[in-house]
Each structure stands twice: as structure tokens, then as C-alpha cells.
Amino acid sequence: xxxxxxxxxxxxxxxxxxxxxxxxxxxxxxxxxxxxxxxxxxxxxxxxxxxxxxxxxxxxxxxxxxxxxxxxxxxxxxxxxxxxxxxxxxxxxxxxxxxxxxxxxxxxxxxxxxxxxxxxxxx
Length: 123
Known about the structure:
The chain is mainly beta. The chain is built from no helices and eleven strands. The chain has strands at 2-6, 9-12, 17-24, 33-38, 45-50, 57-59, 67-72, 77-82, 91-97, 112-113, 117-122. The chain is globular and about 40 Å long. Strand 7 and strand 8 (77-82) form a beta hairpin.
């Protein structure tokens, strides 16, 4: 199983970015996908996730209303649309998949991870 995250970059506060996570070796059915982020000196934290069925999405309170997770099953790709970005959103963003259909917030619940993509939001 491999995950390839992309789409990061430098954006001004208030701007938008869309991250992509291409998954190979595992279909989405029955496997939830999560997005996490890690700022320098901080622990990796849950951003949001989408269930294996694709019918449910979950978000951390810090991004609720600004970030949206979606999925393209034909492309085996999960997206993280980030709007109204803030400097505190600056981090390396990771996608991960877990061998269950339900989303969990703990990093320990995920068995495969992408390499991460840097998002920097300037003030």
C-alpha cells in the first residue's frame, strides 16, 4: 500500500489550497482515510477523515467550516480542500489509511502513511 500526498505550498492568510492523496494497493471500500498535520515541535494531530463508504466525513474543531474532505473513487484519490487558511495551519500534512471503515483521530489507528506535503501560510 502506498500513499502519495501532494498539493502543498506557500499561500497568504485567507487563501486556499487543495491537497491530494493518491492511494495505491488498497481500495477505499472498507478502509477509512485520514488527514493529519504536524507543525515543528508539535505532535501530529488529526485534521479530518472520510469513512470507507465515503458517506461520512469528520473534522477537527480547529478546521471545521474551513476544510472539506472529498474522494474520487475512480482515481483512488482523497482530497483536502483548505479555505480561509490561517498562519496556524502551517504544518506538514499527511494522509493515512486504516484497515477499518470508521475514522478515528488517533495516529495509532492508521497503518499506512504518505510522505507528507508542506503547507505554509504567511500572515
